[in-house]
Design goal:
This protein has about 190 residues and is α+β, with helices and mostly antiparallel strands. The protein contains four helices and seven strands. The chain has two domains: about 110 residues, Sulfate adenylyltransferase (Roll); about 60 residues, no CATH class. The radius of gyration is 20 Å and the shape is globular. About 20% of the residues are buried.
Length: about 190
């Protein structure tokens, strides 16, 4: 979906509602979109994505787990480099070897620091609805490629993210509409 964001095709996202009593208009006629966890119109969201960082793996003691664990030491900025997004073109390494010298490593979006984010979104609107209320226009706004049946294409994406059977469950979702702000290049970010 990052490619769809960068291409300007993705302007909407759906996320499961955790507190149904607050958000479900059928159960709560005064459902308040301001109760969503994503923010209000005008607020900003930053996007995490898979990226490459320059560094090495180390072992450290975790007192809470009472064991040693792996930790990645990100040296990207300290070595005058920039985080990269062309990780598939780089000679990246996924090996955890505490004795290895620093090198490029592909890193999951979950671990992306805020400073490395290159995509900033501004919330335009928020509403709640059932997942199966998604229209063809909404499915296209979710960033699926234009196809003969955008809802079917979005269903495939949704089930890939949320698991088999999630579509039929028809969960209540937050629909967050946004616009992408000018691409940013925070310090230490290589947008190539």
């Amino acid at each position: 979906m990052v490619e769809a964001l960068l291409a300007g095709r993705k302007t909407q996202t759906r996320r499961a509602v955790r507190d149904r009593a607050t958000a479900d208009p059928a159960r709560n006629p005064a459902a308040n979109p301001a109760m969503n966890p994503f923010g209000a119109p005008g607020e900003h969201l930053w996007v995490r994505e898979t990226y490459a960082a320059f560094g090495h793996w180390t072992r450290r003691w975790n007192p809470g787990k009472e064991r040693e664990e792996w930790a990645f030491a990100d040296l990207t900025l300290a070595t005058g480099r920039r985080w990269r997004f062309d990780h598939d073109a780089l000679d990246v390494d996924g090996t955890r070897d505490a004795a290895a010298p620093p090198r490029w490593h592909k890193r999951p979006a979950l671990f992306m620091p805020r400073a490395a984010s290159r995509i900033l979104l501004e919330i335009v609107a928020v509403r709640s609805e059932r997942l199966l209320q998604v229209s063809a226009a909404d499915a296209l706004a979710e960033g699926v490629p234009p196809s003969a049946d955008p809802v079917a294409a979005y269903r495939a994406v949704s089930e890939d993210i949320n698991g088999a059977g999630s579509w039929e469950a028809d969960p209540l979702v937050w629909v967050v509409t946004f616009r992408r702000l000018a691409s940013t290049s925070p310090p230490g970010t290589d947008t190539s």
